[in-house]
Design brief:
Layout: E1 3-7, H1 13-18, E2 23-29, H2 32-42, E3 47-49, E4 66-69, H3 93-105, E5 112-117, H4 128-139, E6 142-150, E7 160-168, H5 188-195, H6 199-203, H7 236-244, H8 248-258, E8 264-274, E9 280-287, E10 306-311, E11 314-319, H9 322-328, H10 341-349, H11 354-379
Length: 380
């Protein structure tokens, strides 16, 4: 059974995606609330709640084949302040990487390192931050490549994320796992970022080849709770107020949903836009395409997603529930969530989508490790 460490672990969604075929030796997050939920779901043994910059290799047991790191995205996000890897949050990549180097120096280099973050990583500081990450892999003897996977392929949730997969030099990589760029996984952003890499990092690059997943068989409406515990339905007045915040384009979507002849569930975010008079105004923007908008952490009320349920002429609305956010991330209903709504939303909105991790593991990570095991048996 392959072993792994997960850093910036949150509630352990990467662990959920890797599944029972993997053994976690160590998990880390600096947020004690997330660490507490991790322990409630996975037990007390592996989680160490501490700033990654304060960790030492003596804190980390054994040797793992895989290290998973979903380092903070705030400074790399297109909605962030643009500090990139120099920022207070996303800059934690560097103490994390120093810890990785220390493990390597001790002879505990993992076979595979996976980094997950927002797609803004590709363009942060004109591509320099992404180049720095790829160069870090190259300097420590790892071949690497990146893919963008949208969770909407697996769950009704629009959530494209960047995954950088690094494999230690000398490992056997089956020919079926690497090839030419494929638009589904290698977006224009990935291809542009690759072209901007320094020569050594570019030479070190791998175009990872993932299979196309089966068609998703769930829609947003399938995940909605009729009587949620964590939120209440709006009053008719509150729903009318929400409708009054919509532009003509968005109101027409609601009218179309009324005429559809079936129950329609729309996802709503409030955004600040310029009105016809040039002044800024808060607008409610809705989508009825069977997919939720990308979950975010609830830094303010406008970043929390609402839902609108339309059945014939009847329209009702409310905040998305805690359990619905977990379902959108691919977590089972048995997964324990924080009782506090904002804490639950922060936990899920900051996580990685479980079926995406599973697809990456079954398509790339596990075949690579299986190839090493097969080679070792042949050699013996």
């Amino acid at each position: 059974m392959p072993k792994f460490y997960e850093f910036f672990a949150g509630g352990g969604m990467a662990r959920a995606g890797l599944g029972a075929g993997w053994k976690c030796l160590f998990a880390n997050d600096f947020d004690y609330k997330k660490a507490r939920i991790y322990q409630q779901n996975w037990g007390d043994g592996e989680m160490k709640c501490e700033d990654v910059g304060r960790l030492r290799t003596s804190d980390i047991p054994g040797k793992a084949e895989l290290i998973w790191g979903s380092f903070p995205c705030q400074d790399l996000s297109l909605a962030g302040g643009g500090a990139g890897l120099r920022g207070e949050r996303s800059g934690t990549f560097w103490p994390f990487w120093r810890l990785m180097k220390s493990l390597m120096e001790e002879g505990r280099a993992p076979e595979i390192i996976v980094l997950e973050n927002v797609c803004g990583t590709l363009t942060s500081h004109g591509g320099k931050d992404f180049s720095a990450i790829c160069s870090a892999f190259e300097q420590e003897g790892y071949r690497c490549g990146a893919v963008v996977i949208d969770a909407a392929l697996f769950v009704p949730h629009s959530r494209p994320r960047l995954f950088v997969v690094g494999v230690k030099e000398g490992l056997i990589v089956p020919s079926s796992l690497a090839g030419e760029p494929v638009p589904m996984w290698h977006t224009q952003g990935v291809r542009t970022a690759y072209e901007m890499l320094p020569p050594k990092a570019k030479k070190n690059w791998v175009w990872w080849n993932l299979p196309t997943p089966p068609l998703r068989n769930t829609n947003f409406a399938d995940l909605i709770e009729d009587e949620p515990d964590s939120v209440s339905w709006h009053t008719p007045l509150e729903t009318r107020r929400l409708l009054s915040m919509m532009s003509k384009v968005n109101l027409s979507k609601v009218e179309k949903a009324k005429k559809s002849g079936r129950r329609m569930v729309g996802a709503i975010y409030k955004r600040t836009r310029r009105g016809e008079d040039g002044f800024k105004v808060q607008r409610a923007e809705v989508r009825f395409d069977e997919v939720a908008g990308c979950l975010r952490t609830p830094a303010g009320g406008s970043s929390r997603q609402l839902i609108m349920v339309v059945e014939g002429r009847a329209v009702k609305s409310r905040l998305i529930s805690s359990r619905e956010t977990a379902r959108l991330m691919g977590l089972p209903d048995e997964y324990k969530l924080p009782q506090n709504y904002n804490e639950a939303y922060h936990l899920t909105g900051d996580g990685v989508v479980v079926p995406v991790v599973r697809h990456l593991a079954s398509s790339i990570l596990e075949p690579i490790l299986a190839a090493q095991s097969k080679s070792a048996k042949v050699a013996a």
